[in-house]
Amino acid sequence: SYVLTQPPSVSVAPGKTARISCGGNNTESKSVFWYQQKPGQAPVLVIYFDSDRPSGIPERFSGSNSGNTATLTISRVEAGDEADYYCQVWDSSSDHPVFGGGTKLTVL
Amino acid sequence: QVQLVESGGGLVKPGGSLRLSCAASGFIFSDYYMSWIRQAPGKGLEWVSYTSSSGSTIYYGDSVKGRFAISRDNAKNSLYLQMNSLRADDTAVYYCARRGQLFLAFDIWGQGTMVTVSS
Questions:
Q1: Structure confidence by residue, pLDDT tens digits, B64-115
Q2: Alpha-carbon distance A76 to nearest alpha carbon in chain B (angstroms)
Q3: B30-35 contacts: CB < 8 A, separation 24 or more?
Q4: Which residue of B has its CA nearest to A34?
Q5: With contacts defined as CB-CB under 8 Å, which chain B residues touch A35?
Q6: Does the pLDDT of residue A1 top 90, yes or no?
Q7: B114 and A CB contact within 8 Å
Q8: How far is B12 from chain A (nearest CA, A)?
């Protein structure tokens, strides 16, 4: 089955740029989705189709996908961005969704 | 507004059963694929099951196959998860989620319902 690998944690100072990676076999052939989950809350979709933002998501959130790695980039990080972030794809061989293990973003 | 509200969670003994419900509102429920996704305490997201808009196509994750059954009642705008032969490692918050028609992502999530399997 398809596997997505994320770093367990990423730390960044306020105002700087955070980059969260999501590695998998030939991720660029798949559409990658990103979710933000704050403590005690349900996940929220922040990026779909690699780099598109749903309405209401700040432009500071962007995504890219090339080769074997997709990346979520958060520019001008704010304290309120501190959360767990999960990437997700659809495994075409099984038609099942697959989630990465999640990355905890800490704002220093 | 668009909303999903789960219910039915609770404490159950190993080997027991539980039925979760998810009430949808604010959108045409019968147009959307729906899914159950769970999260064990302190762990990541794990997909459990999903059903097509009509209920004719259903998939399960390997960890629940043969024990859990997803169903939906489009007339009642409701999604269900019948959980049998529960184990301690089924302990988790269970989320109901909508798969967007355009985004193909899980664009709407409920607040979750906690299931605890313990003797």
A1: 999 999 999 999 999 999 999 999 999 999 999 999 988 889 999 999 999 9
A2: 25
A3: B30/B54, B30/B74, B31/B101, B32/B98, B32/B99, B32/B100, B32/B101, B33/B98, B33/B99, B34/B72, B34/B79, B34/B96, B34/B97, B34/B98, B34/B99, B35/A97, B35/B96, B35/B97, B35/B98, B35/B99, B35/B106
A4: B105
A5: 45, 106
A6: no
A7: no
A8: 22
